[in-house]
Amino acid sequence: MTADVGAQIRKGVVEYCALGILSREPMYGWRLSEELVERGMIASIGTLYPVLGRLKDRGLITSYAGESGSGPVRKYYKLTPAGEAELSEFRRQWEPFTRSVQDIVAGDDA
Q1: CA 18 to CA 52: how far, in whole Å?
Q2: Which of 22-26, 31-35, 43-47, 93-97 has the least mean pLDDT?
Q3: CA distance linking residue 59 with residue 97, whole number of Å
Q4: Could you give the maximum distance between any two Cα atoms of the chain, in Å?
Q5: What is the C-alpha to C-alpha distance for residues 29 and 14, in angstroms, rounded to an integer?
Q6: Does the structure show a pLDDT above 60 at 95?
Q7: Lowest mean pLDDT among 28-37, 52-61, 67-76
Q8: DSSP per-residue letters across 7-39
Q9: I need a labelling partner for 102 at 20 to 30 A (CA). Which of 8, 13, 26, 85 fits?
Q10: How far is the C-alpha of 34 from the C-alpha of 21, rounded, in Å?
Q11: pTM
């Protein structure tokens, strides 16, 4: 896969991946970035903050100050009800979409 194609695919889904991770539990930015970096969705933590800003601007996530257990207070992010609804709709559409793409690009004439 060329870098350009991979970058475009990641760009299209990274916000939903962040929502998916945050749907499991509220999380501070550094930890969320580590999850996304490990999965190859973003390059670094610097890539995450514009994503979080867009999600916050759209009302899909909110932030709050929380105890870290070790060190200073951290900024945690969590889904809003609108974020939960957006993620639910994405999940509903994702499987049929990826199945259609796979059928089209597989090259099988079955």
Answers
A1: 8
A2: 43-47
A3: 25
A4: 59
A5: 14
A6: yes
A7: 67-76
A8: HHHHHHHHHHHHHHHHHHS-EEHHHHHHHHHHT
A9: 85
A10: 11
A11: 0.87
User: What is the phi/psi pair of residue 72, to 5°?
Assistant: -70, 165
- Does 110 have pLDDT greater than 80? no
Angle between helices 29-38 and 45-57 (to 10 degrees): 110
Percent share of the chain, pLDDT over 90: 74
Residue 13 CA to residue 4 CA, distance in Å, equals 15
d(CA 73, CA 21): 21
Exposed, middle or buried, 57 (CB in 10 Å: 0-12/13-18/19+)? Answer: exposed
- How many distinct helices (H) and strands (E) make up the chain? 4, 3
Under DSSP, is residue 61 helix (H, G, I), strand (E, B) or coil?
Answer: strand
Paired tokens of 108: 């099988």
- Can you tell me which residue has the tokens 């933590």? 45
